[in-house]
Design goal:
Elements lengths: L5 H23 L9 H18 L5 H14 L5
Helix pairs in contact: 2-3
């Protein structure tokens, strides 16, 4: 996609910057564990999103987004 649409790379970079800023703000507001680096947090979130997009095509995008957020914030273990 990036080769076919040169502007896509710019949009991707802008979205990446926005996500980094969002995670930084979430950490500052105490929503994320302080003992986990933001680089690790970002890597996990990226992988969750990628898995939702490419490994679960039967899940509709709104439900996939909810699942990503819930898994990201709460994990998959029982409380």
């Amino acid at each position: 996609m990036m080769q076919e649409d040169p502007a896509a790379g710019g949009r991707r970079e802008e979205q990446s910057r926005r996500l980094d800023a969002f995670l930084q703000r979430a950490a500052e507001e105490g929503h994320l564990r302080p003992d986990v680096s933001l680089a690790w947090v970002r890597a996990i979130l990226d992988q969750l999103g990628d898995s939702a997009a490419h490994r679960s095509p039967e899940v509709e995008p709104p439900q996939a987004a909810d699942l990503v957020v819930d898994t990201f914030l709460n994990g998959v273990g029982r409380s």
